[in-house]
From TrEMBL:
Region feature Disordered, mapped onto this chain: 1-25, 340-359
Keyword Iron: yes
Positions annotated to bind isopentenyl diphosphate: 69, 102, 152, 250-252, 295
Protein name: 4-hydroxy-3-methylbut-2-enyl diphosphate reductase
Length: 359
């Protein structure tokens, strides 16, 4: 059985003594800490679903794909007894499997049924909303342009809902060249974790080329992705350096680096862990912006802040652009079993900025 490949953690490098880092001349060193940052409601729910499943049913609990795109989360749940697999076929017949927050296609549900798996579907409700849109538009005879990134699990799941009707458009360049059959029923939908600005550029080009293009009824780029981008846009113009905590396969984390650079940060880097920061980045840096992707527990941001304090960035100013209190209930299959056992079925208070128990 092949487990999901988790990259080998970077070995800590020999660190420079903080006094070797060239300080900015005549400027105070400080951190601008973006908020909202970190865990969104969909990630919170998915991670808690695996934790509660491990507690209630006992290990092992299989998880198809990474439950959320974060190395620390995957490693920690693996230590507790979760087994991450790439494909449904790798789960033993009749075993229990959790589907990740990114969603799965109907084909995956069928594969699970064929293997008589006991499934817990932790697909984020905001991803499910996009799936439903795809099904509805396809039934109504629309051709659908899905703005998203090839190979991302969410895109694979959404495309699987209506493969004949959906054409993927990844960026403005593809919007300029995509070919479609003549139709006056054309609609666009999108992946939930894209750059808002780039998506609007892509859609603008599509609209010029295909005037019949219809908008989806509401935003597909989710509230958490949008809020984290708005916060980093506020921090970036004042930052000599922006550090984004998040994994390389986390779409929304990678977008935060791009958005920071597009909005005035002199430099921006993504790190999974504080130990990955490079001291060379801090020469002549007075203000460091810090944020994190929607799949990142805040404990990893706190590690980074401790390291920054070692480098003389003691002053931390929070820059908050929105409050978040959205919370999703646990997957229905899990709630039902917990209720039958007389156990609490409520999710813990979730959403951004919560110090999740994963450490
Ligand atoms: S980033 Fe958005 S769509 Fe993805 S899990 Fe979080 S809330 Fe759901």
């Amino acid at each position: 059985m092949t487990a999901v490949t988790v990259p080998v953690p970077t070995m800590p490098r020999r660190r420079k003594d903080p006094t070797e880092i060239r300080d900015p001349e005549g400027a105070e060193k400080k951190v601008l800490l973006a908020a909202p940052r970190g865990y969104c409601a969909g990630v919170d729910r998915a991670v808690i679903a695996v934790e509660r499943a491990l507690e209630h049913y006992g290990a092992p609990v299989y998880v198809r794909k990474e439950i959320v795109h974060n190395r620390h989360v995957v490693e920690t749940l693996s230590e507790r007894g979760a087994i991450f697999v790439e494909e449904t076929a790798q789960v033993p017949q009749g075993a229990r499997v959790v589907f990740s927050a990114h969603g799965v296609s109907p084909q995956v549900h069928q594969e699970a049924a064929d293997l008589e798996l006991r499934t817990i579907d932790a697909t984020c409700p905001l991803v499910t909303k996009v799936h439903r849109e795809a099904v509805r538009f396809a039934k109504q005879g629309y051709s659908i342009l899905l703005v998203g990134h090839a190979g991302h699990e969410e895109v694979e799941g959404t495309m699987g809902e209506a493969p004949e009707a959906i054409t993927l458009v990844q960026n403005p360049e593809e919007a300029r060249t995509v070919e479609l059959p003549e139709t006056d029923k054309l609609v666009w939908i999108s992946q939930t974790t894209l750059s808002v600005d780039e998506t609007m550029e892509t859609v603008g080009i599509l609209r010029e080329r295909f005037p019949a293009l219809t908008d989806p009824p509401s935003d597909d780029i989710c509230y958490a992705t949008q809020n984290r981008q708005v916060a980093v846009k506020k921090v970036a113009p004042a930052a000599d350096l922006v550090l984004v905590v998040g994994s390389a396969n986390s779409s929304n984390s990678v977008r935060l680096v791009e958005v920071a650079l597009e909005h005035g940060a002199k430099a921006a880097h993504r790190v999974d862990f504080a130990r990955e920061v490079d001291e060379e980045w801090f020469h002549d840096v007075a203000t460091v912006g810090v944020t994190s992707g929607a799949s990142v527990p805040d404990t990893l941001v706190q590690d980074l802040l401790r390291l920054l304090a070692d480098y003389g960035y003691h002053e931390v100013e929070e820059v908050r652009t929105a409050e978040e209190d959205l919370m999703f209930s646990l997957p229905s299959e899990l709630r039902k079993d917990l209720k039958a056992a007389g156990l609490a079925t409520s999710n813990k208070p979730g959403g951004a900025d919560r110090e999740h128990e994963l450490r």
